Amino acid sequence: MSKEENKALARRIYAEMWNQGDLNVAREIFTLPEGVERFVREFRAAFPDLQHTVETMIAEGNQVAIRFRAEGTHVGPWRQYPPSNNPVHYTGVTIITIENGKIIDHHTWWDRWELSQQISAKGE
Fold it and tell me: Residue 27 needs a FRET pair 20 to 30 A away by CA distance; which of 10, 18, 61, 104 works?
């Protein structure tokens, strides 16, 4: 696949899977979609209006690096946190590796501590 095709595949993670909540996309683009589907389903249940915006995308060979930001509202339980109804925002970076038109490896780093501060009733 070309760099542009790899970037288009990476965009589907945010535009279709996260922003539209289409979990079928996970089965289409990941070689091992089960964990991805579960995480997205649980996270979107707590933050159903969550929207991701891709800020930067760099492709090299069969890898794509994406810097994103996300915004939404915490209206359902997530981990140990009950719904706070607080608006949230965070940033992160994902690096994916693509082979034969599918994502074979992916790693995402995002500021979970920042998110926990925004939804914690005590700010702890």
Answer: 61
For residue range 62-86, list pLDDT tens digits in order.
Answer: 999 999 999 999 999 999 999 999 9
Q: Which residues, in sequence order, are bridge partners of residue 67? A: 56, 93
- Can you spell out the DSSP letters for 4-41? HHHHHHHHHIIIIIISS--THHHHHHBSS-HHHHHHHH
Q: What's the whole-model pTM score?
A: 0.90
The CATH number of whichever domain residue 86 belongs to comes to 3.10.450.50
Quick check: 68 and 57 in contact, CB under 8 A?
no
* Tally of structural domains, the chain: 1
CB 112 within 8 A of CB 79: no
